[in-house]
Amino acid sequence: xxxxxxxxxxxxxxxxxxxxxxxxxxxxxxxxxxxxxxxxxxxxxxxxxxxxxxxxxxxxxxxxxxxxxxxxxxxxxxxxxxxxxxxxxxxxxxxxxxxxxxxxxxxxxxxxxxxxxxxxxxxxxxxxxxxxxxxxxxxxxxxxxxxxxxxxxxxxxxxxxxxxxxxxxxxxxxxxxxxxxxxxxxxxxxxxxxxxxxxxxxxxxxxxxxxxxxxxxxxxxxxxxxxxxxxxxxxxxxxxxxxxxxxxxxxxxxxxxxxxxxxxxxxxxxxxxxxxxxxxxxxxxxxxxxxxxxxx
Length: 296
What we know:
By secondary structure, the protein is an alpha+beta fold. It folds into two domains: about 5-55 and about 65-105, 2-Layer Sandwich (Phosphorylase Kinase, domain 1), CATH 3.30.200.20; about 110-285, Aminoglycoside 3'-phosphotransferase, Chain: A, domain 2 (Alpha-Beta Complex). It has nine helices and twelve strands. The strands form four sheets. The protein has a five-stranded antiparallel sheet, with helices on one face. It has a three-stranded antiparallel sheet with strand order 6-10-11. A hairpin with a 3-residue loop joins β4 and β5 (about 100-105). α4 (about 155-170) packs antiparallel against α5 (about 175-190). The chain is globular. About 40% of the residues are buried.
């Protein structure tokens, strides 16, 4: 693909690929400088939900990763809710596949939450709480509303997703298949969530930019869906230590109370292990990971 086709009225001076900091990522992303401006070009490499992670996102939230045009509404909603800069979609193009031209946001990619100052993590907690508070809905599913799950049906829907993923992907994994019946019972026994909000299954430091003092930019929004906010806390337990979690929670609680995790933690963890949000991990190790929000 010649990116110049996206810029018929301006000449590209430079175009370099941007890496998200991990392998096998689902999008092609370039930093493009033209005679007139500095932008980011993004396009999905996928023809649909053809990885285990995206299969899970599609089943759970109705998200198709190849439909990058949906990010226009997602990014606008996140920017309005969070107070953290999110790149605006400037142009949409359909060539060999869909392409977005987005605002370029300056900053340094955050490589870890570990070792960050308490004030840094408190601001991050408050920012995530603002996202949760500002995007609350009376249904789960896709952020654009095209795929909706009534709140009363959220946990039944999760159970169906678990059954489907185990049948389709994990038939030869003895630990995962043996745990399925117990996890189905646990998730179906949960009360319906009172609301759903924007949640990011693959929440990870590399999706944010920093100025060294706080998170200033959110640049990877592809996997956002609408679900119980406890899902974000379950995902965060894999990237925060107890010390960082305590500071994050203090910031979060300046905006919202923490969600209850004790009842939902294990079945939500199982669901996220099926989706491989942090790659393939032994199930016993995954489920026994420290519950860093248990006593904050």
